[in-house]
Amino acid sequence: MLDILTFVLKLEEQPAFAGLISDRVAPAANVQTDDDLLNYIRETASIAFHMLGTAPMAAQELGGVVDSSLKVYGTTNLRIVDCSVIPLQIAAHTQATVYAIAEKAASMIVGK
Prior knowledge:
By secondary structure, this protein is mostly helical. The chain contains 3 helices and no strands.
C-alpha cells in the first residue's frame, strides 16, 4: 500500500496535473516521509468493498479452489456458490453477478 500511495503522490507532482490539482486533501501535505505515510495508511485504511475471489474458479495448479461446475477440488459434491468463486475483481456490484452464478449453479445441480 505504501508503494501505491507513493506512486500516486508522485503522479500529482507531474506537469500534466499542474492545473488540475489545487490542494492535496488526503493525506495532508505535511505527511511526507515513509513513516508518516505508513501511519496514515494504518489510521485510515479500511475495507469498503465487497470481497471476492477467496475460493476462485481456476485450475487447481493456479491456486483455484473450485472447477467450472463450482465443485471444490478433492471433494465429491461440495459446491461453492457465492462471490468467492469470482477469480478477478469485477467492475460492477456483486449482487447481480452472484445471482447469475446461483442461477447457473441451480441449473447444473438439477441437470438442466
